[in-house]
Design goal:
- The complex is a heterodimer.
- By secondary structure, chain A is mainly alpha-helical.
- Chain A has one domain: MetI-like fold (Orthogonal Bundle), CATH 1.10.3720.
- In chain A, helix 1 packs across helix 4, helix 1 runs antiparallel to helix 6 and helix 2 packs across helix 4.
- The radius of gyration of chain A is 21 Å and the shape is elongated.
- Chain B is mainly alpha-helical.
- Chain B has a single domain, classed as MetI-like fold (Orthogonal Bundle).
- Chain B has eight helices and no strands.
- In chain B, helix 3 packs across helix 4 and helix 4 crosses helix 6.
- The chains are: A mainly alpha, B mainly alpha.
- The interface between A and B is large, with 34 and 39 residues.
């Protein structure tokens, strides 16, 4: 089979529509993962043993099982108990929960890297826990986390094709439907690869910049 | 109750395919990791470029796209692959690219004095790598290799989409035959978790075994 440029231009609008959904899913998933990670890390630090243990085990469980199966679970099992989700929403929840368990580790490392003296100083200054977090811990802990978080968001971007398995019409699914209706696989599937490579190379450049801007400067 | 044992058998068959894929994929990934990781540290510039291109390409595109490309496009270019071969190839090359960076980082983490000791003992580059650097670097690599192996195990679920009858695929079969969604999916989630736990336990044991006698060497 030969590479056909005319066919490439013909399918481009459909693929670009897919790219939009892919990027949308990544952004929403990242936002959710950032929040879920925060919830996990706070729950794991809770003084209540039952809460911290349960959340710890759940996070471990989610991290040890495939995202694809979790997506199936959200999309096919939840409707049985009356929770019917549109595909994109189910996909975003799956991505957010799965990557939330990873971002939780980033937060944990960032918080634990803060010298003990800072906590003690906050106590010595008679700050309340909320003030301690907002004025002392967060401003110091967050900047070093940013590159690591961005790294996981890029990883998430590369996992979005899995959403095609639960019928989200993102890039991969568009390519597959083009391929199935035209019986040409080379161009659509290769173009998907090119799109992913280009977007992730651009984001890697962005990541390098973030690393220079925020990384390792105390 | 009787029919469930039959369906469980189906899922266990799939579990075997998943294990097979994980083992073969990890083996390929390990080979690629050392080839590309050491390639990036090579003195020969073309070898360095080749290794870098491999690593950036496979880390930059998603495993999913690579798998589809291996399964749908390669046959059209004259390389017919069975689903299992395509799966092992894509998984191994993808995870190998991530692990290559681990190899590179671990080799670079070995102290300069070790290389100087090699020179002092008149070892050539290969002997130095084989007997001095790699044994120390390997212990540094192990924990991350363990994580990579778990990532690979999780990525095997994707092969169900190219009609390879792994655990996820069989769960879908059971779902379509019984109409029950909760039991098959809950079963395979537990099985995946059990496999991942077994993997991390095995790696931790191996780590302890290899670290024995090296306490004084490591900083």
């Amino acid at each position: 089979m030969e590479w056909d440029w005319e066919f490439v231009w013909e399918i481009m609008p459909m693929l670009l529509a897919g790219v939009r959904i892919t990027i949308l899913a990544t952004i929403l998933g990242s936002a959710l993962a950032a929040v879920v990670g925060l919830v996990i890390v706070i729950a794991r630090r809770s003084a209540n043993r039952a809460v911290s243990r349960t959340v710890g085990f759940l996070a471990e469980f989610i991290r040890g099982t495939p995202l694809l199966v979790q997506l199936y679970f959200i999309f096919y099992v939840l409707p049985d108990i009356g929770i019917l989700l549109p595909p994109l929403l189910a996909g975003v929840i799956g991505l957010g929960l799965h990557y939330g368990t990873y971002t939780a580790e980033v937060y944990r490392a960032g918080i634990e890297n803060l010298p003990r003296g800072q906590w003690e100083a906050a106590k010595a200054c008679n700050l309340t826990p909320v003030q301690t977090w907002i004025h002392v811990v967060m401003p110091q802990a967050i900047p070093p986390m940013i590159p690591a978080l961005a790294n996981y968001f890029i990883a998430m971007f590369k996992e979005t094709p899995l959403l095609s398995a639960i019928t989200v019409l993102e890039l991969m699914n568009q390519a597959k439907s083009v391929a199935n209706s035209s019986y040409r696989y080379i161009e659509p599937i290769t173009l998907v690869g090119v799109f992913f490579l280009v977007i992730s190379l651009i984001s890697v450049i962005g990541l390098r910049w973030l690393e220079k801007r925020f990384g390792r400067v105390a | 109750m009787d029919q469930w044992s039959g369906y469980l058998g189906l899922i266990l068959q799939g579990a075997w395919v998943t294990i097979e894929l994980t083992i073969l994929g990890s083996a390929l990934a390990l080979v690629m990791a050392f080839l590309a990781g050491l390639g990036r540290l090579s003195k020969l510039a073309p070898l360095r470029w080749l290794a870098t291109a491999y690593i950036e390409f496979f880390r930059g595109t998603s495993i999913f796209v690579q798998l589809f490309w291996a399964y749908f496009v390669l046959p059209l270019l004259g390389v017919p692959l069975s689903p299992l071969q395509a799966g092992v190839l894509a998984l191994g090359l993808n995870v190998g690219a991530y692990a290559a960076e681990v190899v590179r980082g671990a080799v670079l983490s070995v102290g300069k004095e070790q290389y100087e000791a090699c020179v002092a003992l008149n070892l050539n580059r290969w002997q130095c790598m084989r007997h001095i650097i790699l044994p120390q670097a390997f212990i540094v690599m192990l924990p991350t290799f363990g994580n990579n192996a778990i990532e690979l195990l999780k990525a095997t679920a994707v092969v169900s989409l190219i009609s390879l009858a792994d655990m996820t695929f069989q769960a879908q079969v059971v779902r379509s035959q019984t109409g029950n969604t909760l039991i098959p999916f809950a079963t395979i989630l537990l099985l995946y978790f059990a496999m991942a736990s077994a993997l991390s336990w095995g790696v931790r044991r191996l780590e302890r075994k290899l670290a024995r006698g090296l306490d004084g060497v490591r900083a």
